[in-house]
Specification:
Layout: E1 3-8, H1 16-23, E2 29-32, E3 41-45, E4 48-52, E5 65-68, E6 73-74, H2 76-88, E7 97-100, E8 104-105, H3 108-121, H4 133-141, H5 156-171, H6 177-195, E9 199-200, H7 202-211, E10 216-219, H8 245-248, E11 257-265, E12 268-270, H9 283-291, E13 304-306, H10 310-320, E14 324-328, E15 338-347, E16 350-352, H11 359-364, E17 366-373, H12 390-404, E18 407-411, E19 419-421, H13 425-429
Parallel strand pairs: 1-10, 1-11, 2-5, 2-10, 5-7, 6-8, 7-9, 11-14, 14-18
Antiparallel strand pairs: 3-4, 12-13, 15-16, 15-17, 18-19
Helix pairs in contact: 3-4, 5-6, 10-12
This protein binds guanosine-5'-diphosphate (GDP).
The site of guanosine-5'-diphosphate (GDP) has 19 residues, from helix 1 and strand 3.
Length: 442
């Protein structure tokens, strides 16, 4: 049983893409288990770069298999567009990219509903990525969703009419049902042909791989504080981004998960609306945004920036069972004189180290700060912990102590090699050795 989860410990955009890319050579397959094309990794390929939204970046390594699990919602055209872009760069996907027949179809209908709702919400908008993810999950839970496997159902026509009628009604979509049905029917013709090589029972596939001793990397999108159950509800995504869902969203047993790597940015960012206790509204926030290039991969939106929140990080460690922390973007803080870190919350005069579930309480929180000295030296590209300035090492140690997990990887720049690997998992999962000795027999 050899599964490892990589997930975000904040509100997403922690730099999971780089960490997954770094450690994926030690795994046979990379599996996504929730969300849809609202995720985003910028991938550099030679002198070109493009954003992957659905397919894990592991696809760029020729020996790595990639799986989109049953917990996902998949927009067929977005998926096919990514495949086309990859193929145009010479990256072949045949025989190593698989999508669950149980994953739900995300339709243009859902995109239209998402956009219309956000526009109608005014000040209360969630700040979704307008990709239709929420409405697609609503249809799933309302049991009116269509799944990828349905495309080959003998009763596809019946399903199409019945499910779409319920979706249009329940989602309150301002569309003409007959047109939606006709459009979906004609697109389904194309999808059936083009998706056929990819759609299968990934549950069976993954369990076969586990039985054969393959190592699986489960890649979460978004972050813990955006999880629909454990995040800052209702300003959350529509799926579970936490570690537990890696099992449910891919069909492997929870006992297959042996390690959880929590990716934590050295400061905090958030896209969209919702409470953000350590947010900076001044020039310090602006500096971080510029230096950290904090603009969304999927939407291009400027991200809200703030100091590190150790209450949130500890909460994420506990909810996910984080066994190792990958600390990213340490170099972005290089020029800061003094770094305030939130070590507790004060709520109505009472100090707490818990994250309140009540959104109003969260909005009222005042951070208790501990101010630590900055290092004011260039750490970009460093690869040895001992070479970090003493103040930067203390910053790392403070995080370990307050969050309660070891920092085994420290990212000091966007490139793969700009990483400090420390003890334990960090070193183990980044060894250059092939994932499984018997990989050839995959
Ligand atoms: P993800 O969705 O969690 O992968 O996060 P993003 O796509 O927003 O990735 C963060 C961005 O920061 C990407 O453009 C990375 O290339 C870049 N990045 C990742 N790690 C580091 C780092 O340690 N330092 C700097 N300066 N940039 C980094």
């Amino acid at each position: 049983m050899t599964g490892t989860v990589v997930l975000g410990m904040q509100w997403g955009d922690e730099g999971k893409g780089k960490i997954v890319d770094l450690i994926s050579p030690s795994f046979d397959a990379v599996v996504r288990y929730q969300g849809g094309h609202n995720a985003g990794h910028t991938v550099r390929f030679g002198d070109r770069h493009f954003a992957l939204h659905l397919i894990p970046s592991g696809i760029l390594r020729p020996d790595t298999r990639c799986v989109l699990g049953n917990g996902m919602v998949v927009h067929p055209q977005a998926f096919l567009d990514e495949i086309d872009r990859l193929e145009s760069l010479g990256v072949s996907t045949g025989g190593r990219l698989f999508v669950s027949e149980r994953a739900h179809l995300l339709l243009d209908l859902h995109v239209a509903v998402d956009i219309a709702r956000e526009n109608a919400m005014g000040d209360f908008k969630i700040g979704t990525t307008s990709r239709g993810i929420g409405p697609a999950y609503e249809a799933k839970v309302a049991r009116s969703g269509l799944r990828l496997g349905d495309l080959w159902s003998a009763d596809f026509e019946g399903l199409l009419e019945e499910r779409l009628a319920r979706q249009v009604r329940d989602l309150g979509a301002a569309v003409d049902l007959a047109t939606v049905v006709a459009e979906t029917r004609s697109r389904a013709e194309v999808w059936r042909t083009r998706l056929r090589p990819y759609v299968c029972s990934t549950t069976e596939l993954l369990n076969d791989w586990l039985d054969a001793g393959r190592r699986l990397l489960f890649e979460s999108a978004q972050g813990t504080l955006l999880d629909v159950d454990h995040g800052t509800y209702p300003f959350v995504t529509s799926s579970n981004a936490t570690a537990g869902y890696a099992a449910t969203g891919s069909g492997v047993p929870p006992t297959a998960i042996e390690g959880v790597v929590g990716v934590l940015k050295a400061y905090t960012t958030r896209v969209g609306s919702g409470p953000f206790p350590t947010e900076l509204m001044d020039s310090a926030g602006e500096k971080i945004r510029k230096r950290g290039n904090e603009f969304g991969t999927t939407t291009g939106r400027p991200r809200r920036c703030g100091w590190l929140d150790l209450v949130g990080a500890r909460y994420a460690r506990r909810v996910n069972g984080v066994s190792a922390i990958a600390l990213t973007k340490l170099d972005v803080l290089d020029s800061v004189d003094e770094i305030p870190v939130c070590v507790a919350y004060r709520l109505d005069g009472v100090v707490t180290r818990d994250l309140p579930s009540d959104i109003d309480a969260l909005a009222r929180i005042e951070p208790e700060w501990e101010v630590v000295p900055g290092w004011r030296r260039d750490t970009a590209g460093l690869v040895e912990f001992a070479d970090l300035p003493a103040a930067a090492r203390s910053y790392v140690e403070l995080i370990e102590e307050r969050v309660g997990a070891p920092v085994t990887m420290i990212s000091t720049g966007p490139r793969r090699e700009e990483t400090i690997l420390r003890r334990g998992l960090g070193a183990a999962v980044t060894s250059a050795a092939p994932a499984s000795e018997t990989r050839d027999a995959f």
